[in-house]
Amino acid sequence: MKDMSYQAVMGRRNEIMKASLGIDFSDYIQSPIAFDYERMMRETGYGLEDIVRIQAETKVGNTPLFELTRLTEAVREFAGPGKGARILVKDEAANAGGSFKARRAAISAFEAKKRGYAGLVAATSGNYGAAVASQAAMRCLKCIIVQEVFDSRGVGQPEILEKSRACEAYGAEVQRLSVGPELFFQLLLTLETTGFFNASLYTPFGIKGVETLGVEVAEQVRARYGKDPDAVVITHAGGGNLTGTARGLLSAGCDNTRIVACSVDLGGLHMASDTDFNRKSFTTGHTGFGVPFATWPDRVDVPRNAARSLRYMDEYQLVTQGEVFYVTELLAKLEGLERGPAGNTSLTAAVTLARNLDRDQIVVVQETEYTGAGKHHNRQLSFARENGIEVRVGDPRENVPGKAIVIPERLDQVRGSVQDMDKLRLSYLRNAAKALPVAQWSDADRAFLAADIKKDLDWVASAAAHI
């Protein structure tokens, strides 16, 4: 009988991962830093036409692209002369499961079925759970979702509880945990005891699935406006959304489209903290995921992460919780679209971009998500008040994560803030130096690092000299 203690299960994690994914990551790993990323992506065996076909089988993809004419006009009222780019939104809530995550889940479910697994397991508190459960249902696979839901008082975050209900509606079993380090152990334990497929967010299958989103954006904008989008804004958390979309845009030839990441600023809150867990109103798409995953992607449940956001990112904007709540309400009242908070994070950044771009330029928000009772912004604000957070109207620059949510009075107060990209890149290199000291970096390591932070070898050499 196997030893199922914490130490024993964690000690078998490489063996469990290999059995649950069918990928031998050691075939690609070249050093503690470098691995053959593009070969790993190619060897999924799926081309673009394959993925489009697989996704269409389970009601995923070919979602509508809407021009937000009233929101664009509202921005032009305060933008400078000749400014106020068109704002478009890709309505990913139209996918089965209600979000872009269905694109990832569709490929994992297809792969699991093809290899003869009886079911899928995913560890996620985001929309991915509903997406995996929805896809598993259509492929006649069992499904288990492992979620961090509660703090130590047993109080559940309403947005996550809403997602739990969605998973169960699709027939999945949901394992609800309190916040803490046991999530990864529980995932490994479930994978080993069930023999199910690991539908991790960070496998090459998942990222290949999102590439169709970037391709569709390119094709739909060209068909309607005869040009490429000038900027695509992407809500950033673990990096898969940005990585897959950017790879799709590049494969469609959008070489000059600016890739803009956006996260809700939750600076000062610790995501693994029991006391901070319920002092935030956004469960993903915030800096608690966005910054650490950008500056060291290989902190996930697979040996090498296929989501590598700094490799594709041109700009990183932060917005406040109050700004996102304000834009969420505006989207409903101006455009008649009531959608969940994740896509509205990047929509908030799109407002700040559009005010500074010319009127003939195009900004695309590449996702929306379904909403529901627990995800609704009014429930989130009520929950914040119940947890002692001050909620008021005023200048959003007075937001203090975990203490005050300040909702703008006017759209022109929505400004966000741009992050120092080189500071993020330097942080990535410092994390790489923890994995392998700079003095031991080979030419292959330096080339990998340069590609992974979208810089050249000279920049890496100069930065490394100061680590």
Automatic annotation (TrEMBL):
InterPro entries the UniProt entry points to: AKP_thiolase_beta, Cys_Synth/Cystath_Beta-Synth, TrpB-like_PALP, TrpB-like_PALP_sf
GO MF annotation: an example: lyase activity
The entry's keywords: Lyase, Pyridoxal phosphate
UniProt xrefs under Pfam families: PALP
Keyword Chaperone: no
Domain Tryptophan synthase beta chain-like PALP: 58-365
GO-annotated biological processes: alpha-amino acid metabolic process
Cofactor requirement: pyridoxal 5'-phosphate
NCBIfam families: ornith_OrtB
Name under which the protein is recorded: PLP-dependent lyase/thiolase
Organism: Mesoterricola silvestris
